[in-house]
Design a protein that fits this description.
Elements: H1 2-26, H2 36-59, H3 72-108, H4 119-184, E1 194-196, E2 201-203
Antiparallel strand pairs: 1-2
Amino acid sequence: MEGLSLASNIIAVLTLAGKLLTTGYQYGSSSAQSPPELRRLVREVTTLSGVLHAVNRLVGDPVASPRTDNGSSGNLIRNMAEPVEQCRKLMEGMLRDLQKYDASSRRRGAWRLCWPLKEKTTKEWCERLERYKSSFEVALSVDEVSLAWEIRNDVEDIKAIQLLNKQDEKQAVYSRERYQARILWAPWSPSLGYVFLPTALYTFG
């Protein structure tokens, strides 16, 4: 259930990010005359979306899903669920603020003329988005390291099993050779009618 909740929040954040990017482009973020903080906001939203796409692929990866209970993906889900939800709430608030400014601008006939938010507010948004992005990147890198350790441990387990199998084979060969040696050097048995000596075989009767 945690994985489904995280995936749902990631999809919600990506949807909100798309709306924010659309709004940014409507205000001319691609123009050289647009405020630098607006261009930075668009960059932060774009890179954050890329990181979350990577997280979403990992969470929904069927190969990784067996690890979601106790393995690294499980840690990823537990570590990222709350930050992703907080990021979603931040973006929802950003869109609400922009929609209020948009409605006011439309009434004044100033739609698309200028970015409505103050530089300080936009920078604060950028900084918060950047912190979320950084935390997601760290969680991803930790998950990759954890996965690498899991793979290494699996390889070591396989090597240990192979070594035990080889030791079992050697023990079996050694036991068989000892058994044959005991037969070879066994004392004479009247019931069999022969005795083995180191240099020759003597039979009786």
